[in-house]
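job 3f2a | input accepted
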Amino acid sequence: MNWFFAVLASTLLFSVVSILDKRLLAGLFPSFTTFNITFGLLQFLIAPMFLVAVILTVGFDGGGGVSWALASGLLWAVGLSLFFYALNMEEVSRVSPMQSITPVFTAIIAVALFDESITLLQWLAIVIVVMGAVMINLRSENGRIQIAHRKAFLVLLASAFVLAWAFIVSDQATDRMNVWATQGFRALAMGTGVLAITWRPRHTASVIATIRNRRIAPLMLLTEGFLAPTASLIFVYALSIGPVALVSTVFAVRPLSVLAISTFLSTGYWNVLNEPLDRSTLGLKLFSTLLIVGGVMLLGF
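job 3f2a | predicted structure (301 res):
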């Protein structure tokens, strides 16, 4: 498999994961908290798989990156918890583009703290992404255009900011340790962080009931236990064999695939997500998503 088809497969898999996560959060799990705790517990199944794979194949190449991997896992725990919380409140076709503004925060952090420089074209890209992020959250209410779900908007901004730090710290980890080991330690810390944030004794009964539910548990295991890690591994593989700029550019179109899939799953043929399909709403979503995708692509140059 060449790098293009690898990143395309990863992009489509991540899009499917976003759609299924929305379905799990909005239609199957009793609450966001139960979903997040279950997600955290899954990490303790995923982490040993990566670590065993490392031991049996390339071997563990030292502990220089362990602390960085653990730190990145804690940041991922906070960032993804915020993302899932917003996904529980907002349409997936609006949430997914907002997650794509993470590179903007990464670039700004790199300039502020690591003395990196940004070209005029990249500053223009940041402005375009910010415009798209605001527009994707606009709605017409009582004859006025405004950001309807301000809470979800702010939570998504916070999520993107935390995930930007997670990417930076993860990069430090992979500079010191192989990717497989990094993923294993990251998953351990992420699971621990998620449980520390959300688990309380009163949630235990709900989590146990959910794990035993034959409708919910298999779908959650498929989505976050198999599809998400597989998509992540394929993306890492694409980065390892292809040019980083082009791989990142192809991956940036993910919000468009999420918009296409969520629109199809809201039609009369298979109305699973029940998102609004009127012409003005779809037009605004498409235009805003194109702004974000285009801005992210420009940022990579």
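job 3f2a | The chain has a mean pLDDT of 86.
job 3f2a | closed
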